[in-house]
Amino acid sequence: MKPKPKTNRLRSPLNPQIRRRNNRLRQQQDKLPSSPRSEEDVQSLRQTTEGVIFIAREPITTTKLVQYARLRNGKEARQLIEQLNKQYDQTNGAYRIEQVAGGYQLMSRPVFSSWLKRLEHTVAPQRFSAPSIETLAVIAYRQPVLRAEIEAIRGVGCGEVIRQLMERDLVRIAGRSEELGRPYLYATTRTFLGLFGLEAIEDLPAMKIPAPLEVPEAA
What we know:
By secondary structure, this protein is α+β, with helices and mostly antiparallel strands. It folds into two domains: about 20-25 and about 40-115, Winged helix-like DNA-binding domain superfamily/Winged helix DNA-binding domain (Arc Repressor Mutant, subunit A, Orthogonal Bundle); about 130-205, Winged helix-like DNA-binding domain superfamily/Winged helix DNA-binding domain (Arc Repressor Mutant, subunit A), CATH 1.10.10.10. Helix content is about 45%, strand content about 10%. The protein has nine helices and five strands. Strands 3-5-4 form a three-stranded antiparallel sheet. It starts with 15 loop residues before the first helix and ends in a 24-residue tail after the last helix.
């Protein structure tokens, strides 16, 4: 049985019209006039927003923040997050709200990493072999990409490495190519963005990935 292609809600190629419509609705909502809130209301909303972000197990989007914290729109959510970060900076807080993987997450400052590693319940950092890192880099920078293209760039078979990356939810099937046999196309996931602290795939550092080697035609 062929595996069912996985879709990424952040970058799904299947519903571009729906994404554009939702973006327009959010922009219109952000522009709607609203009466000013009292300082007590703003303080209460800051606390509510902080609590929602604190309890979330993964980066939470502004859409969900508006829903759970009962805010007016995404603009107000971003303003409250900015105010919270200013408070953390003024009091030298040990954490900040960072934008990662298409959402917001409460994260400790890097300066405390050596201390936090001593905690027994801290999640151990994921370790990657050299083949896994190389394969993941090719997929990240050339996605959506065929397995044949990955193997042409690396010069070795990558089937088992790709399977392991998919099991770790770092790589997904993004669709099928129009080439003969319609092979699978591979791309990274939201888990990949969160693991490497990226808001979007466009935030990857600049790097030039070589093109696949061309196979000469037989004489």
